[in-house]
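Hello,

Our lab assistant flagged a job as stuck in the queue for most of the afternoon. It eventually completed. Since we weren't sure the result was trustworthy after the delay, we are filing this so someone can double-check. Below is the sequence as submitted and the structure that was eventually returned. Let us know if re-running is recommended.
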Amino acid sequence: MKKHITIMLIVMLTFFGCKDNSTSTENTVETTTPTEILVQTITHDDFSVAKPKSWKEAVLPQARLYKYFPPEVNSTDPRPENIMIVVDNAPKDNKSIEQIVDIIIEGSQKANPDMKVIDKPKAAKLGPLEGVMIGTERTFDREKMRSVQIFAKTDKKMYVMTYSCEVGNCKNYYVFDIMAESFHPL
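-- returned structure --
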């Protein structure tokens, strides 16, 4: 269990974020939704998901980490707007997804005292899976970053889908919704 939570904690700490140059304390993610979006379904060993055709994909199969970037974003930027999916083996101790998320949040806040949970954990779906969604903010190099994450698990696997962006520059949250709704564990 500790190994799996440690992996998820490392992923959260490494890849979270959204930058903010504003002083707003509003906890919403800004977005515009195009009237029509062309999607394609992609399948990996652990899941299938629909993503916009124009979005780029970066895969680290040995880490079971998959990142998706809007076409206008340079994936080599230190903190680009992106959606990331991480797959790990499910913990064997039968903890609920709510318990696992609480442990991950606690560990993340100990490791990063400036991390704030801005949207408390609540029920959410990752495709057909019941899960937990949280929203967080954290400052990296004086830039405020925002993440929205959905955690879900099956008997054998744990999935985390994360949308990360600079606060004030979160333009593609609707893609996170599309991908979460279309997600299918394999």
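-- support follow-up --
The delay was a queue issue, not a problem with the job. The result is valid. The chain has one domain: 2-185. The chain has a mean pLDDT of 85.
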